């Protein structure tokens, strides 16, 4: 708990600890800046795509380490999303997150995880990650633009995110930052998990995954206090808690652990997650939805359902009668 008291702000991407526990468990080393080119190459299975083939159309978003652009392939006219990470950054946290994300994107092949088409370095030193373009943005932007989600639409979102999480967890990958801003949507109602900068690949069944990374608002109780809420915590249950908060936020229209309009701070949030009751839905929701949320938002991690179990829940079988809106 001493670590918690040292933090003052909410909703910040927290720095990775310098301990070896948070370094990638895969074979790609963390090279010095001067040798980054050797480790960043096009994946031959994606086909040869270079930065010169791409034309920037518009900015889709900014992050701490770079910018995401909507781009056009000059020869094929295909549209992609290009994440450019600034090559001049010597921040070891940024570089560690970058190589982690690159390795996970290379490994994954799921219809509910954003697809990577190429990874390359530009002459400027910027590193480019070329991904599929999702034309409806994120769940966060949809919530702001179009308002709250109906239960059938939430069931559709939940089913697809759970399919993605089940794939990741089966392959020993923990996302650690599930939230509305990290789930992408396109106009034909496909939903895909994105942004693997603070994710982790578990190399051994005994690996712990209680590192203090991600967006604190969506962290599960055991991320703050593993002794009280962790049990045999391995990290997967934290993704389920974050999914529960995400779905409840989409239904209620505001962050569910605090009253609407309240400006959160670190202490308020930590107390709400660790000492408050799990957030509850208002009257009038279906029993299936209420039961599903209770399965996601158990404070003790070992009591939460897994992604595979949640895919059998009656709520996710609800067929959306209309498109996400």
From TrEMBL:
The keyword S-adenosyl-L-methionine does not apply. InterPro entries: Kinase-like_dom_sf, Prot_kinase_dom, Protein_kinase_ATP_BS, Ser/Thr_kinase_AS. Its EC number is 2.7.12.2. This is mitogen-activated protein kinase kinase. SUPFAM superfamilies: Protein kinase-like (PK-like). Residues 54-316 form the Protein kinase domain. Gene3D superfamilies: Phosphorylase Kinase, domain 1, Transferase(Phosphotransferase) domain 1. Keywords: ATP-binding, Kinase, Nucleotide-binding, Phosphoprotein, Serine/threonine-protein kinase, Transferase. Transmembrane segments: none annotated. It catalyses: L-seryl-[protein] + ATP = O-phospho-L-seryl-[protein] + ADP + H(+); L-threonyl-[protein] + ATP = O-phospho-L-threonyl-[protein] + ADP + H(+); L-tyrosyl-[protein] + ATP = O-phospho-L-tyrosyl-[protein] + ADP + H(+). GO terms for molecular function: ATP binding; MAP kinase kinase activity; protein serine/threonine kinase activity. SMART domains: S_TKc. It is an enzyme of class 2 (transferase). One of its GO terms (biological process) is response to other organism. ATP binds at residue 83. Belongs to the protein kinase superfamily. STE Ser/Thr protein kinase family. MAP kinase kinase subfamily. Pfam families: Pkinase.
């Amino acid at each position: 708990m001493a670590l918690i008291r040292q933090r003052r702000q909410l909703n910040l991407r927290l720095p990775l600890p310098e301990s070896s526990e948070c370094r990638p468990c895969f074979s790609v080393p963390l090279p010095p800046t001067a040798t980054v080119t050797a480790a960043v190459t096009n994946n031959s299975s994606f086909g040869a795509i270079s930065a010169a083939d791409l034309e920037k159309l518009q900015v889709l978003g900014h992050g701490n380490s770079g910018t995401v652009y909507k781009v056009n392939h000059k020869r094929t006219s295909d549209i992609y999303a290009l994440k450019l990470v600034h090559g001049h950054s010597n921040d070891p946290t940024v570089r560690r997150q970058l190589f982690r994300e690159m390795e996970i994107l290379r490994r994954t092949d799921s219809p509910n995880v954003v697809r990577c088409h190429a990874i390359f370095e530009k002459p400027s030193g910027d590193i480019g990650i070329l991904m599929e373009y999702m034309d409806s943005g994120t769940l966060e932007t949809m919530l702001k633009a179009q308002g709250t989600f109906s239960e059938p639409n939430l069931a559709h979102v939940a089913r697809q995110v759970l399919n993605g999480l089940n794939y990741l967890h089966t392959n020993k990958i923990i996302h650690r930052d599930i939230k509305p801003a990290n789930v992408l949507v396109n106009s034909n109602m496909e939903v895909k998990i994105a942004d693997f900068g603070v994710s982790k690949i578990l190399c051994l069944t005994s690996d712990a995954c209680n590192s203090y990374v991600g967006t604190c608002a969506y962290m599960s109780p055991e991320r703050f206090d593993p002794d009280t809420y962790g049990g045999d915590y391995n990290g997967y249950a934290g993704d389920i808690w974050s999914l529960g908060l995400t779905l409840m936020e989409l239904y209620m229209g505001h962050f569910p652990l605090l009253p609407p309009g309240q400006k959160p701070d670190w202490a308020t949030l930590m107390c709400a997650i660790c000492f408050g009751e799990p957030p509850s839905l208002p009257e009038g929701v279906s029993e299936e939805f209420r039961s599903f949320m209770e399965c996601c938002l158990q404070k003790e991690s070992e009591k939460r359902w897994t992604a595979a179990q949640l895919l059998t829940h009656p709520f996710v079988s609800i067929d959306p009668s209309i498109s996400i809106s």
